[in-house]
Amino acid sequence: MSANERPILLIGAGGHATACIDVIERHGVFTVAGLVGLVEEVGRRVLDYPVVGTDADLLTLHADCQHALVGMGHIKSCRPRRGAFEMLQRIGFDLPVIVSPLAYVSKHAALGAGTIVMHDAVVNAGAVVGRNCIINTQSLIEHDAVIADHCHIATAAVINGGARVGVGTFVGSNSTVRELVSIGADCVIGMGQRVLADCAPATVVTKGAS
Predict the structure, then answer these.
(1) Who has the most CB within 10 Å: 63, 67, 141, 199?
(2) Where are the domains of the chain?
(3) Residue 176: left if φ>0, alpha if ψ -120 to 50, beta else—which one?
(4) CATH code for the structural domain at 97-200
């Protein structure tokens, strides 16, 4: 760790955590102090970083590390990520925004606490992204789009201008959301879908919406 880097804990020790580690290393502001995982994962190493404890250890870990990021993925439900985020808030962790230096985020866009923007993603002018979101590799959030809290915009997904994505919604890889369309909370948009009309909350789209 360089003198200017601050320690950060990653909550989760699976595949998404490895991608987060790579972004954090490139970001250069934080260094991974360790990961928090399941009981059976404690003592393992993920990309040479140790799994240092479980959720039960977070109060103790907070004494030495004030920054944390939810490093769990989100496909079918945002509940695990949302629960972890809210637990970290209650304990008092700082939940920074992490943006890959290989991504582009307009100075006219806004990102909420605990959100990560992965390599080669674009967040354009006027876009608003909420808290604890994943803006994954090569995804595009166009101008004036609004992404609510706890969403996952997966790899190479496109959210076009002025579209709105509700709390806890997952938009799958290579899916495209038409401009000005509104997607409700807790929806699941499958891989490669075209969303051309509004979706009610808790909608599952696997064959497209028109």
Answers:
(1) 141
(2) 6-91, 97-200
(3) beta
(4) 2.160.10.10
**77 vs 109, more confident:** 109
The fold adopted by the segment(s) 6-91 is Rossmann fold (3.40.50)
Q: Which residue has the tokens 């140790």?
A: 50
- pTM, two decimal places: 0.95
